[in-house]
Amino acid sequence: MNIIVWVALGLLAGAIAKVVYPGYQGGGILSTMILGVIGAFIGGSLLTLLQAGNLQLTAAGAGLSIIGILVAVLGAIIAIYLWVLLGRSSNA
To answer: What is the pTM of this model?
Structure first.
């Protein structure tokens, strides 16, 4: 996938995930974009697991389509949850 498409998908998915996820996540545009790209990998891997039955680190299911954006947003929400969970355990 083209790097410009990855940046656009990451920015869009990260921004939507930050709006949907409750609470304050902080960070700027770069962290939002990275969150979205990580979300695309998580969501694409989960989609591959559900479709093919094997776990592969891929973002093949996440592209600039409605399904791809939904998969990337779902993955970004999972990434936010894991980030918050790790942040809580290190502060305790």
So the answer is: 0.76
